[in-house]
Amino acid sequence: MSRRKHEITKRRLLVGLGLMVILTVPAVTLADNRTCEFNGSWYGHLPTFQLDFVGTAHGVDSSAGTYSLEIPGLNLALFGFPDAVKLSTFRGTWERIDRRSVAFTVVAYAVDSFGQTVVIGKISGIDTFTEDCGSITIKNTTELFGPGQDPFGGEMPDYSYFRGQDHSASRMRVDPPAEPL
User: Fold this and answer.
1) 26, 75, 108 from 127: Cα distances, Å
2) Long-range contacts of 47-50 (CB under 8 A, 24+ apart)
3) Distance of alpha carbon 4 from its chain centroid, rounded?
4) SS3 label, residue 125
5) Cβ neighbours of residue 130 closer than 8 Å, sequence gap 6 or more
6) Under DSSP, is residue 71 helix (H, G, I), strand (E, B) or coil?
7) pLDDT tens-digit profile, the chain (181 residues)
8) Which residues have C-beta within 8 Å of that of residue 9, sequence separation ≥ 6?
9) DSSP state of 76
10) Contact 84/121 with Cβ under 8 angstroms?
């Protein structure tokens, strides 16, 4: 092969390799920069208290929305509130921090048998998505306020403030109906 043909072949090879790199880099970048959607329902377990929970996020888009959290087995007597007979669902808001995490704050009221508020619970945290967006790691703090306190008023809670143990939740999916046995 002549020197000139060798140079042309070499240039074509370099141009071809360059095009391959240019065409594949955006695809990899797009996949790595995917924004995880928080909207939907999540289920998980709180290992510290051996409790299961379900959370549901709603939003008009992927930047902010409302959030509800149910912890059906939570016994407030374990926290020093034996008169608390009912705990409302935790309700609040969430907002996106970045493509892989959201912040949230939810509030619930516990009442006694007369319907009087015994304690106000406030949970604030950050949910960080796994690479496949199918699970989240949750880091949160819990504050327990007295009946007359404003959980958003900036004062220290009457009862307690603590950081929860990191835990996780998984996105719920649609499964086909179970077949009768």
Assistant:
1) 28, 24, 19
2) 47/165, 47/167, 48/164, 48/165, 48/167, 49/74, 49/78
3) 61
4) strand
5) 136, 137
6) coil
7) 565 554 555 555 444 434 344 343 333 333 457 899 999 999 999 888 889 999 999 998 889 999 999 999 999 998 899 999 999 999 999 999 999 999 999 999 999 999 999 999 999 999 999 999 999 999 999 999 999 999 999 999 999 888 888 999 999 999 988 887 6
8) 1
9) G
10) no
Q: Closest Cα to residue 97, out of 79, 123, 124?
A: 124
- Token output for 30: 């797009």
Find out if CATH 3.30.1360.70 is the number for domain 40-171.
Answer: no
What the block records as the tokens of 65 is 């929305």
Whole-angstrom Cα distance, residue 29 to residue 22? 11
Q: Where are the domains of the chain?
A: 1-33, 40-171
pTM of the model: 0.79
Question: Please, are residues 41 and 54 in contact by the beta-carbon 8 Å criterion?
Answer: yes
